Amino acid sequence: MRYLPHTDEEIREMLAVTGHERLSDLFRHVPEKCRFRGEIALPNQLSEWGLLDHFRHLDQSIATTSTRAVLMGAGSYSHYIPEVVPGLVHRSEFVTAYTPYQPEMSQGTLQGIFEYQTLTARLLGMEVANASMYDGASALAEAVLMALRVQRKKNTVAISTAVHPHYRQVVRSYLQASLYTVIELEVGEDGRTDFSPLQGVDDLAAVAVSSPNFFGIIEDLEEAAESIHDAGGLFITCFTEPFAYGLYKNPGQCGADIVCGEGQSFGMPQSFGGPGLGMFACKSSFQRNLPGRLVGQTVDLDGRRGFVLTLATREQHIRREKATSNICSNQGLCAMTAAAYMATLGRTGLKKVARLNFDKAAYLKQKLCDSGAQLLFETAVFNEFALKFPSDFAPVRERLLEKGIIAGLELGNFYPEYKGAYLFCVTETTSKEVLDTVIEEAGK
Amino acid sequence: MTQGPGTSGLILEEPLLWEKGKPGRSAFSMPERDVPETPIPMDLAGDGPDFPDLSEVDVVRHYTRLSTWNFGVDTGMYPLGSCTMKYNPKINEKIASFPGLSSAHPLLEESLCQGNLQILFELQQYLAAITGMDAVSLQPAAGAQGELTGMLIFAAYFRSLGEKRIKILIPDTAHGTNPASAALCGFKPVSLKSGNDGTLDATVVKELMDEETAGIMLTNPNTLGLFEESIREVADLVHAKGGLVYGDGANMNAVMGIVDFKRCGVDVMHLNLHKTFSTPHGGGGPGAGPVCVVEELKRFLPVPRIVEQDGRFVVEHDYPDSIGRLHGFFGNYGVLVRAYCYIRAMGAAHLKKASQLAVLNANYIRQELREALDLAYDKPCMHECVFSDKSLHKYKVSTLDLAKRLIDHGYHPPTIYFPLVVPGAIMIEPTETECREDIDQFIAVVKEIISEAGQDAEMLRQAPARTKLRRLDETLAARKPCLIG
């Protein structure tokens, strides 16, 4: 086996040093009643080419290999990934390193993550960002827990129902064994969260809002900040599509206290939902309450600039049960990927690509409305929008599927009240030709 | 020579991203606009972030230079204890990037993603077979999230019985994630002192286990690299009081095909696919921390679950007792694919052989270094061996100095100062993918460093001297945090 370098002779010689006769003798002290009986029930070993064949066969059974376009977002987005991004980040010096515990031999990872933290903070308009969480959903759960730590004695958290349904489920999972109360805020007729119920809540720790929200709607974050702060809560914003901040105001300038979300759009393949990137940022006054790893700037013995993991006394390996989070491994390589992607786009590129997303989505939205579809909400969106059709859209969607186009996500599984409505997403990767095909079929 | 990138030899200098570039440069191949512009609402519009504009070559040089300041398993031996830094097969990276796998949307209808679901379903089966457990969830994105999942299952189980249990037993050798994960679920950790031989004494568990205690979290082999031989007695004691046993599978690499965790009495356990199952660590992640349970606890597993129905693979949500969802979608799918590849490439026999050779390598190092360094516990080890700093005292050098000097010799240092129960711990985990010559050379280098300590201790205290930067001021970093530039 090519991953196991030992020859039989070496094994014999090494066993002679350790004082054993056979490899199995190394396990003499494992009690009989704990032992594995027989052989592990696994399929036969595959050679390297056998493995490739097996996966080529599987790969062909997956629709995306033959699909022209997936007009579906809802937390996972198809953006073009420039070759330089994987080409650089997949260098094995980055890929095969562990967490940078030894800074002198990990400056590549450390500077890369410091740059990621910086670009993330700039993108979101915040003062500090951490080195990543697992994904947008767990980042939101950690943001809620962090707000509860900051707010000490307050026990109620409110979440907008327009936050991605999966994210809300993860928050509930994280909080289920604690005594906190989670309430949900409904959306109004404009698709934006209604904050009026907050007035009656007296131990409000935080409110979480998503912008763009699940329906693609840009929330009025400035007004939200005011309502939430007036009610004594911390303002958490989350997102599934960071590209929106290339076009719209960022959460920081609107008054958010903690900002978190999914960074998959920034250079990561969709990969059936993971690995993505939990982006996490906050005001600097909360930095000692941050979950997860942080890279900080310092100097070496000669006074030269360098980077280290820092503020470790927040973390589980030092603080154990009193840590700010249990997180250890994060999504380091995905954070490097996002930084390389942000660097590749630059400010100019991010703004242009964001604008293209907006314009393409606006084009499809307008044309579908022209042919009789009705928007669920009339408010401004980024690259996603929800609408219903005058007649059943399912057969149209079937016809488009035959043409290799996956046209929108039916909302009934997420919001029973919107059964039959569809959430569309259009990014820079979708051509006008594809959009026109959808428009044509929908108009038939 | 004071100018130019080569002033530090072949280690080239490279500034921070925003110290480079010029506004208007671009490294992105901008797609052509084929739709008209639509006005955006001005009250919501922003200016875009303050990112540098760079050229493609700027970006390529930047990350290529950064990469040369890093050290990975592909560079050299990385005997970081409890982290299982084994070789990460190249073919697995290629397969994970196949278009059907890497560009699949997670909300595709089942009929369009049978291949993706099949991989998940089969991996669940494989991990159940390897551990001896009955059912698996692949959602947790890392070991600590696996632990959290496990502790939520504990809490849900006791809730289903109408019981309130508030404590949990955790040995003092456990990873910090154990108490942190338990605390998130409302369990107060009770620390168990290891016995004189570095393993758990069942009588300690007997004394502390009661009807207010949810159970125990046990890492086996433990972080001293020792097999907890009393695990079955401990499990029986915990079960007798109605408790559950959590197995932290961080050190699974020692026991594949050798230990059956269900037979050990474990009820819930997690695995670290980025350790035992060869997926790369990526400088801190992404990992994957699947959770395995016994039949009785299956109904509490996270949703959605991937099941097989009449030869088709289905995403099933309808489990009313489930603890709920832990990940936005199915977990770190790309990592799961790599682990699947590894298991299929190895097969049952080679997985067992991998564990045997990992244990052989560790015992060999333990034997060869036992004169030079002080063994923390003098008994046969599993996949890692742990030494204390006792033999270094006479040279007035520390574990840290030894570790830093190893860097100059071209090795990633072992895990140091952990587990906490060993003074100045040096925890060496070679893994099975290091060959004998490399291990012999590592042993010779450790011995050489100890002799260097006798001749020139100051050199060790000043190490490393051959890296891009010398020792970094971690106190300054924590006292005056500078987290963004």
Which keywords apply here?
heterodimer; A: 444 residues; alpha/beta; Aspartate Aminotransferase, domain 1; Aspartate Aminotransferase, domain 2; 2 domains; 7-stranded mixed beta sheet; 4-stranded antiparallel beta sheet; 12 helices; 34% helix; 14% strand; B: 485 residues; 13 helices; 13 strands; 11% strand
How is the topology of this model organized?
The complex is a heterodimer of chains A (444) and B (485).
Chain A lengths: L7 H11 L29 H13 L8 E3 L12 H6 L2 H4 L11 H18 L3 E2 L6 H15 L5 E5 L4 H11 L5 E5 L18 E7 L10 H10 L3 E6 L18 E5 L15 E5 L12 E5 L5 E5 L6 H4 L12 H39 L3 E2 L8 E5 L5 H9 L2 E3 L1 E2 L11 E4 L6 H12 L1
Helix pairs in contact in A: 5-10, 6-7, 10-12, 11-12
Chain B lengths: L55 H13 L21 H7 L2 H4 L11 H18 L3 E3 L5 H18 L6 E5 L5 H8 L3 E5 L9 H7 L4 E7 L11 H10 L3 E6 L18 E4 L19 E3 L11 E5 L2 E5 L16 H37 L4 E2 L9 E4 L10 H10 L6 E2 L9 E3 L7 H20 L1 H6 L11 H6 L6
Parallel strand pairs in B: 2-3, 2-4, 4-5, 5-6
Antiparallel strand pairs in B: 1-7, 6-7, 8-9, 10-11, 11-13, 12-13
Write down the Rg of chain A.
25 Å
Largest sheet of chain A: 7 strands, mixed
Tally of extended strands of chain B? Answer: 13
**N/C terminus separation of chain A:** 59 Å
The H-level CATH homologous superfamily of the largest domain in chain B, spelled out, is: Type I PLP-dependent aspartate aminotransferase-like (Major domain)
Order of helices and strands of chain A: HHEHHHEHEHEEHEEEEEHHEEHEEEH
CATH architecture of the largest domain in chain B: 3-Layer(aba) Sandwich
Number of helices of chain A: 12
The description of the largest β-sheet of chain B is: 7 strands, mixed
- Do you know the CATH topology of the largest domain in chain A? Aspartate Aminotransferase, domain 2
* Overall CATH architecture of the largest domain in chain A: 3-Layer(aba) Sandwich
Strand arrangement, largest sheet of chain B? Answer: 1-7-6-5-4-2-3
The quaternary organization reads as heterodimer
CATH class of the largest domain in chain A: Alpha Beta
Return residue spans of chain A where pLDDT drops below 50 for at least 5 consecutive residues.
none
General form of chain A: globular
Strand order of the largest sheet of chain A: 2-8-7-6-5-3-4
**How much β-strand is present in the residues of chain B?**
5-15%
